[in-house]
Batch of 3 targets.
Target 1
Amino acid sequence: MLRWLLVILLALIVFNGLSHWLRKIGLGRLPGDFHFKLGGREWHLPIATAVLLSFIAMAIGKFV
């Protein structure tokens, strides 16, 4: 269980780092992507974008 939490945390950190590039192509602004300010910092939780990208990766994996 600890490994899954670590994987999810790392995925959210990667999405947060790539959020500027993802917004240019329209990802990161889907319904279900949360943006909020906490402690003077802006946080992004791209839950819907992560689900969409994992679905696309799964579809590509099935056809390859």
Target 2
Amino acid sequence: MFQPSVLALFLYFPEDKSEYIPAVISLTIFMIAAFFTMRFIMKVSRREAEKTKALEEQIKNNQSTQRDS
């Protein structure tokens, strides 16, 4: 197990709080990108689900017409 003194070597809290600005900017950019990526994935998934539903209906209709013949 790591000792608390070893883990403390990895912590860095700057006294000049302006050093947090680049981190906040990059975090914001990545969060916005993640949001839009998720929205894109949801839209594509919704389109694919609609296509699948239409295909299922087409297959059901074809099967029912073949049985009736």
Target 3
Amino acid sequence: MMPSDDRKKSRVTLLDVAQHAGVSRATASLVIRNSPLVGAKTRAKVEAVMQELGYVYNVGAARLRAEKSRTVGVIIPNLTNPFFAELLAGIERVIDSAGMVVILANSGDLTERQDVVMRRMREHGVDGVILCPAAGTEPAMLDGLDEWGLPVVQALRHVSGRTDYAGPDYIGGVKQSVDYLVSLGHRSIAFAVHGQVHSAYRERIEGFCAAMHGHGLSDDLIVKVPEKIGDISASADLLFRQERQPTAAICFNDVIALGLSAGLFDKGMQIGRDFSLVGFDDVTDAEALRPRLTSVSTAPETVGENAATLLLDRLADRERAVRRVITPTELHIRQSCVSIADIDA
């Protein structure tokens, strides 16, 4: 007898398979585990029923209840930014050393896509997930993962204080940038940002405002530029459409810095001579730019290692206290900044 439509829509259990095949649940379980105790004819019958009832996902779930899959899901919002490649390298280094494998997925920074990917991660039976939450992710989403029994570590961005987190000291990194530019005599400093608002965005803004106020300076030169690097270069004029003209800019990330550097060049200006520019993240491309880009290193590989370690620790002890591991930042000074006296000269 074929299963009813309602039966198809519900989760098919191992007991359903056993009853449909006319065997005991224990026998169906032995088939799943490839036990030699089951005869070829019985095995073929049970496997045929599994296929008929659509028992694909439940096979994986049954195995996971008895043993670990040795896989870890990693969900990031952007595969084109080289920063995330460095983060992934750190994650894989730790996960590989534990004899496990990473399954990578891209959320596109969309909560809807993130939900789909997370469900698929669960279906594939990952032991845990390292998640850089998409902008707009609600804390309730992570609470739902707790109900699934799926350990999660937040990386780079955080939406819940009830879940482990690994990230850089964004506030301290922006403060280092402001302090350095002020030491060069700059008083009119812009902060170029882009993208959606999330915790890393807010912390960078917080760091900029606090550092500027600490020097008795205005924080009103926050400029939002487009997402794509080609559009960023074409929008360099945005820096100079403010009431005050900046002599320096700190960038939300190195992607913005690279775009603005090109845009300023097209305007006949050179960073490190006519204008000072500071990047953020210090990815490999920062060293390739000429003049070389001064940038805040957020040590993405170290953050990745920390996130992976937090997840392994969580897998080993589900009841341990929630932890936050914040990686210090470091300003790498190169050639893209100039003293205000030299600009005036």
